[in-house]
């Protein structure tokens, strides 16, 4: 074999080895990516919550609710600023390990990466946000959300049409379909002898005479209300007056 022929054979062997190594590396990378990617498949409906960074305030309290019909509701509130929520709705779509929000009244989209039951907000280009605040763009799944929804489903089957509760001190009442009210507080449970309810533009007002003879008055307004214990966001704010005491809390229609 001539020297020239030997050099050609060596060159071909080198090219062959390089091709094989590149192929193996690419296959390994694709395999790792495939194994690392977790498909977006949480049990619906689901809520993700967290506090996002804010340039001019301590942070943005954020909640994202995803429904089974591919709709979503986004709640955000600037901490230590306006007490009201910014509420936006739209449709969501998922592809492998990513989630995209399509807003109802704009062409804006918002993208997240899903892993280990956590959502990570991406930048406007769909890339991971890096830097010192990188971990602050993560939202955690709120397990308490499903527990409360399941409880409300059970109450609905028992004929409850509206629930309300507050904390410090704890109190709660339920309105049943037979137009009675059940009131509960630590160490006591009472049923109304009678109940008068009047609807208005903001919600409704009610007066109930409890079995003890005390009069419970309640004002209910259609305004989002976040429970201070569970973090669950109710659709209504509720105020009750019982004797000389007045307390506030949250409520929600079940029917």
Describe it:
It is a single chain. The chain is of the alpha+beta class. Strand 2 and strand 3 form a beta hairpin. It is elongated, with a radius of gyration of 28 Å. About 10% of the residues have low confidence.
Strand arrangement across the biggest beta sheet = 1-2-3-4-5-6-7-8
What's the tally of helices? 2
Q: Taking Cα atoms only, what radius of gyration do you get, to the nearest Å?
A: 28 Å
- Overall number of strands: 18
Spans of at least 5 consecutive residues with low confidence: 7-13, 15-19, 27-35
> What is the distance, rounded to the nearest whole angstrom, between the alpha carbons of the first and last residues?
91 Å
| Structural class assignment | alpha+beta
Report on the biggest sheet: 8 strands, antiparallel, barrel
Helix content: 10-25%
State which percent range the strand residues make up: over 45%
Specify the overall morphology: elongated
Oligomer: single chain
Mean pLDDT: 87
The overall number of domains is 3
Order of helices and strands: HEEEEEEEEHEEEEEEEEEE
């Amino acid at each position: 074999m001539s020297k020239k022929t030997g050099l050609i054979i060596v060159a071909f062997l080198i090219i062959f080895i390089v091709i094989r190594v590149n192929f193996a590396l690419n296959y390994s990378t694709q395999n790792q990516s495939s194994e690392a990617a977790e498909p977006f498949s949480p049990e619906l409906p689901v809520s993700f919550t967290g506090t996002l960074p804010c340039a001019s305030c301590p942070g943005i309290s954020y909640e994202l609710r995803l429904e089974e019909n591919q709709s979503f509701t986004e709640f955000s509130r600037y901490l230590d600023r306006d007490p009201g929520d910014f509420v936006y709705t739209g449709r969501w779509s998922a592809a492998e390990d990513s989630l995209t929000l399509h807003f109802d009244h704009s062409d804006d989209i918002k993208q997240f990466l899903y892993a280990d039951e956590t959502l990570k907000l991406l930048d406007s280009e769909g890339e991971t946000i890096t830097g010192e605040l990188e971990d602050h763009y993560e939202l955690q799944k709120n397990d308490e959300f499903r527990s409360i929804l399941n409880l409300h489903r059970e109450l609905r089957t028992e004929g409850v049409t509206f629930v309300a509760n507050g904390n410090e001190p704890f109190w709660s009442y339920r309105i049943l379909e037979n137009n009675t009210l059940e009131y509960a507080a630590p160490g006591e449970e009472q049923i109304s002898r009678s109940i008068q309810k009047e609807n208005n533009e903001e919600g409704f007002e009610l007066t109930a005479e409890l079995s003890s003879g005390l009069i419970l008055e309640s004002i209910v307004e259609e305004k989002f209300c976040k429970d201070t214990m569970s973090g669950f966001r109710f659709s209504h704010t509720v105020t009750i007056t019982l004797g000389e005491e007045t307390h506030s809390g949250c409520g929600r229609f079940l029917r």
